[in-house]
Task: inverse folding
């Protein structure tokens, strides 16, 4: 022990100040400024049924933004990456989660029910070490199946940052208020969660100080029911009757569209050198000045003869061009 180690009372006072916003947490890398990320339009692809492509994309954005908040919390370069999304029963999830964890229960009004954030015990303890200025080499000396008040408080600060980021990332879909409603141990029975309930399990990895740790966000499907049509990659069946009505409406309206028409009268070929020597007054000979091609929106449509009709320049149509003849027979 030395004078640089905080007492439990000092730790509690610091945590209360951070949670209340009275203590400002600075980033180890100095001030951060807004960044502009290039938007890439991907190629169209087939979406598979029962997947959650939109949720996967939101999780990637969540990981990127939450990673920047975590850097300020632990004063170290931090990266969060989004992992796989799995759908299973809550009982199956509990059976395969063998690592001890602290579970943060949260609400997301107006969505009904509660979600869970599982923070593995090793991540909780490393967050505490870094939060208080340690280097992660001084593990807590207490039973491995419990958490101290300080560890629980730091984990809740981490959960607060994750929930605020979810609110920002999801705002285009739902304007929800994400609030922590309780803290549990992964060995506890949590009220409102039945082993048969279907859940969506989103896995994340947090890496800092050359170590990688896991946490996960668990959403009951009944809680996300209003958003599932957006998240799912479900392929909709087409209605032939609706398609026929749509095709008929398009055909009826396309004939009323206004398009630009232009024409080209005669043509010839010259070398580039001869063109460069043109001077005002030069005369350019063209082949058959009566032959003309009519263009609609720069697309050649028909050939004709150029002349005068009722005192106006006009083109007499002679034949459709070959590319369009079949379409007009």
Result:
């Amino acid at each position: 022990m030395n004078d640089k180690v905080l007492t439990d009372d000092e730790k509690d006072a610091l945590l209360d100040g951070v949670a209340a916003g009275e203590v400002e947490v600075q980033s180890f890398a100095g001030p951060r400024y807004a960044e502009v990320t290039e938007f890439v339009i991907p190629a169209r692809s087939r979406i598979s049924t029962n997947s959650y492509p939109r949720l996967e994309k939101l999780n990637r954005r969540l990981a990127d933004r939450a990673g920047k908040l975590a850097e300020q919390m632990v004063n170290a370069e931090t990266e969060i990456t989004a992992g796989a999304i799995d759908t299973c029963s809550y009982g199956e999830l509990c059976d395969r989660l063998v690592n001890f964890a602290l579970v943060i229960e949260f609400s997301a009004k107006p969505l009904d029910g509660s979600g869970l954030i599982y923070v593995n015990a090793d991540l909780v303890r490393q967050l505490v070490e870094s939060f208080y200025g340690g280097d992660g080499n001084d593990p807590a000396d207490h039973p491995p199946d419990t958490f101290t008040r300080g560890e629980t408080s730091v984990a809740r600060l981490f959960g607060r940052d994750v929930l605020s980021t979810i609110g920002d990332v999801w705002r285009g879909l739902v304007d929800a208020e994400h609030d922590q409603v309780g803290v549990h141990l992964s060995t506890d029975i949590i009220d409102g969660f039945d082993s048969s309930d279907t859940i969506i399990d989103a896995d994340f990895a947090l890496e800092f100080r050359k170590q990688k740790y896991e946490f996960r966000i668990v959403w009951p499907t009944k809680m996300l029911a209003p958003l599932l049509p957006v998240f799912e990659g479900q392929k909709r069946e087409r209605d032939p009757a609706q398609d026929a009505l749509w095709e008929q409406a398009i055909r009826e309206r396309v004939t009323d569209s206004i398009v630009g028409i232009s024409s080209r009268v005669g043509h010839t070929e010259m070398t580039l050198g001869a063109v460069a020597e043109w001077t005002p007054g030069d005369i350019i000979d063209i082949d058959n000045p009566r032959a003309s091609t009519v263009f609609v929106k720069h697309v050649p449509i028909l050939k004709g003869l150029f002349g005068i009709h009722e005192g106006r320049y006009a083109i007499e149509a002679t034949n459709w061009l070959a590319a369009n003849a079949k379409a007009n027979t």
Observations:
- The CA atoms of residues 111 and 226 lie 8 Å apart.
- The chain is about 30% helix and 30% strand.
- Residues 8-231 form a domain with the Chemotaxis protein chec fold (CATH 3.40.1550.10).
- The radius of gyration is 34 Å.
